[in-house]
Amino acid sequence: MKEEILRIQEEALASIAKVDSMRAIEDVRVAILGKKGTLTMAQSGMKDVPKEDKPAVGQMLNDVRRAISTALDEKLDQLQVEADRQSVAGIDLTLPGRSVAVGGIHPISIIRDEAIRVLRRMGFVLADGPDIEDEFHCFDALNTPTDHPARNEKDSFYFDSGKLLRTHTSSVQIRTMEKQNPPVRIIAPGSAYRRDEIDATHLSVFNQLEGLYVDKDVTIGDLKGTLEYFLQALFGQETEVRFRPHFFPFTEPSFEIDVKLKVAGCEPKWVEIAGCGMVDPAVFEAVDSSRGNKEYEGMTGFAFGIGLDRLAMIRWGIRDIRALIENDVRFLSQLQ
Ligand code: PHE
Question: What domain range is 185 assigned to?
Answer without folding.
Answer: 107-335
